[in-house]
Predict the 3D structure of the following.
Amino acid sequence: KKLTLLLAQELQKRLQQAGFKAVLTRTTDTFLDLPDRPASARKQKADLLVSLHFNSADEKTVKGIETYCMTPAHASSTNARGEGAGTGAYDANRNDAQNVLLAWHVQRALVGNLDASDRGVRRGRLAVLKLATMPAILIEGGYLTNVDEEKNLLSEDYRQQMARAICDGIAAYKKAVEPK
């Protein structure tokens, strides 16, 4: 949680330098319940929601970056092993096309700018995503249980590169969706 806050603060700085208005759901070492995060974004009238996380796994060799977006209605999620195909729609499904486009641009920028394994764009009905009313993604920026990735994530320089890549992905998304 400390590393994600440091990354969020760096990302906010980079986004503001790029001309975006960026608001954090938390600015101190506090916990905000998952449903409260998209609620905070709605209250702020946010155009996008980007949720930052770092992963862990029992297997210490698992590594890589993955970006989640909301699973379309009646489809199974990436990690559901075919289950969940009968699940109905959520508010977030109104933004299916934008969700996946945002996830694709950010994942592409992260993998293209960092020496990290590409675990791809994934679909999930995660609380922070399914309750979002604006395009939303959840970034798993690497595995803290992998020795090499942990070393990178503890590095301020690496987190700065990651923030720059996320900012670049958001800018590419904005360019893709802006009217010509």
